[in-house]
Amino acid sequence: MAETRKNTSETVNETVEAGRETVETAADVVQEAAVVGLDGIRRATDQFTRALGLTGQESEALTRQASENLGALAETSTVLMRGMQDVSREWLTLSQHGLQKNIDGLTQLARCRSMQDLVAIQSELLRNNWHYMIDVSRQLAEHSIEIANEAAQTISSETKPAANRARKAA
Q1: Which of 36, 39, 66, 163 could bond to 45 as cystine, CB 3.0-4.6 Å?
Q2: Radius of gyration, CA atoms only, the chain
Q3: What is the pLDDT of residues 115-163, one digit of tens each?
Q4: Long-range contacts of 96-104 (CB under 8 A, 24+ apart)
Q5: Burial grade of 149 (CB within 10 A; 0-12, 13-18, 19 or more)
Q6: Per-residue model confidence as pLDDT tens digits over 47-60
Q7: Rounded distance, CA 16 to CA 93, Å?
Q8: What does the alpha-carbon distance between residue 123 and residue 2 come to, in Å, rounded to a whole number?
């Protein structure tokens, strides 16, 4: 029984670690794609200003504002990506903890000597799992709200100066 529990625990740890690595790799890929996308948008903005025949200060102001807006989007994307990584890591950690609790619960079920013990332990495990699921959901929701607030604050602080300059120029 102890060997089975040890093997299951090792498998859970390996699965969680693999999930953690997958999340980090996906976040890196998305971040690289955002950088490549921003470069493409910058080139498109340059072509757009040339196509419209904007020159001198108009072109420079438009390019600067577009660049600042893209910078704000990049900064906000970074905040969101970091937040997504944090939430994913937290979820994986909480999942690992939950799986370990379930393994412990299965061990308790295996030790049952009567139907009454089985029903009592099973109902307790079910109650504990529901409680744990609600707590995990609440924690992840709170963390997600913090990330959204940070992203909103970042994009607001990055775009206000550009908006003020645009109003002054108009």
Answers
A1: 66
A2: 26
A3: 999 999 999 999 998 998 898 889 888 988 998 899 899 888 866 665 5
A4: 96/12, 96/13, 96/16, 98/129, 98/132, 98/133, 98/136, 99/12, 99/16, 100/9, 100/12, 101/128, 101/129, 101/132, 102/129, 103/5, 103/8, 103/9, 103/12
A5: exposed
A6: 766 666 666 676 67
A7: 8
A8: 24
